[in-house]
Amino acid sequence: MKAKQLLFTLLCMAMSASIWADGLEQISSIHNVDRTTDNLVKELNNLKDKGVRVFTVIDHRDNAKKVGLELPPTKLVIFGNPNVGTKLMQCAHTTAIDLPQKYLVYQNKAGKTMITYNNPEYLVKRHQMKGCDALISKIQGLLAGVANKAAK
What we know:
By secondary structure, the protein is α+β, with helices and mostly antiparallel strands. The chain has a single domain, classed as TATA-Binding Protein (2-Layer Sandwich), CATH 3.30.310.70. Helices cover about 50% and strands about 20% of the residues. A five-stranded antiparallel beta sheet has the order 1-5-4-3-2. A hairpin with a 5-residue loop joins strand 4 and strand 5. The longest helix has 20 residues, at about 1-20. The radius of gyration is 17 Å and the shape is globular.
């Protein structure tokens, strides 16, 4: 019996690793979805002087309700910096498919609020970018910093 439990545990770990191998970063928030989303927008707006713009917030739950479907609280914050995004596209034009940047804020099945976003290293790998390492590092720090501040 213990062998089956071990096998099941290893299988679950492998499945979990494959999800994160797809380049997603995820952290939990101590706040609900609305407050976490507001915090993200506030933190991003604090970066306006650095060229960061919040383009829109999509409320997927509200849209689901409009068509008679149910969804736990789920919001998408779409933001970016045209200067930085353009430089990424200059490194690899196909990066445009993943821009602008996004934070997904949702309530998971356990009732916890989660913030999920693309790891910039994933973009490097996915789009075979060359010559953007310093920029990717800055983006990685910004994304993690904003998400962590919003979650606390």
